[in-house]
Amino acid sequence: MRAPFIVGNWKMHKTVTESLDYVTAFLPQIAEMRDCDIAVAPVFTALASVAAAASGTALQVFAQDVAAEGPSGAFTGEVAAEMLKEAGCRGAIVGHSERRRNYGETDAIVAAKARRALDAGLLPIACLGETLAERESGAALEVVERQLGAIAGALTEADARRIVLAYEPVWAIGTGRAATPDVAQAMHRHIRSIWEAAFGATAAAELRILYGGSVTAENVADFTSLPDVDGALVGGASLSPAGFAQLIRRSRE
Description:
The chain is an alpha/beta fold. The chain is built from 11 helices and 8 strands.
C-alpha cells in the first residue's frame, strides 16, 4: 500500500513569525490524522524554525527548491541539499512549473536537483506537467515522457524507490481550472507505466504520484480517490491552517 501524501507549498508567503503561528494552529488539527503523510514547504528563511517547531510531530518540512550543485561552492543565492537537511528538512520540491517557466530550469537541471537531494538523504518531489499549448497541440504525453525520462536517467533502481513524483498540469495552476479526474488518472497511469518500464513492477507499484493544479478542499477527494493518484501538491489552499487541515481530512473521504 502506498501511504497517501499531502504537501502544502507555501511559495513566497509567510515570514518566520507567520510560519510559526501557522504551525502552532495547524498541529492540533492534524494530531489525530494517522493515515497519511503531511508536509509543508515554507520559504528558506523559515525552514529551520518550522522544522524545530514540528519536531516530534507528524508534520514533515520540505524545501521549495534545492541547488543542483553542492555540497558547497561559488553559487551565489543557492542552498545546498546538505544545508537543507541540517536545517531539519525531510525533502525538497524540484522542477516546479514556476521554476521551469520563470527561471528557465531545464529537464537536465531538474534531474540534477533530484540527484543532489537523494545524495544528501533528502526525499525529492519531482514535478512534471504540460502547458495548455502543449496539451491542446496533442503533445502532453510526449512532454511528460521527456521530463520523466530526464529524471529517470539520473536515478539508480534503488533511487527509483526513494522519490515522489508530482503531476501538475501547468494550465491548471493558479487558474482555478483543475484537470478532470479522468485526465489526471490517465496521466498518472501513464507515468506509472513509464516507471515500470524503466525500473520494474515493484518500483512502479511503490511509486507515489501526487496531483497538483488548483487543488482545493472541494475537489481534492475527486483526485485522491483515483487509483493512481497518491496525494496532492497544494498551493494557495494550503496557506490557511484550518483550510489545509480541512483539505487533508476531505482527501481521506
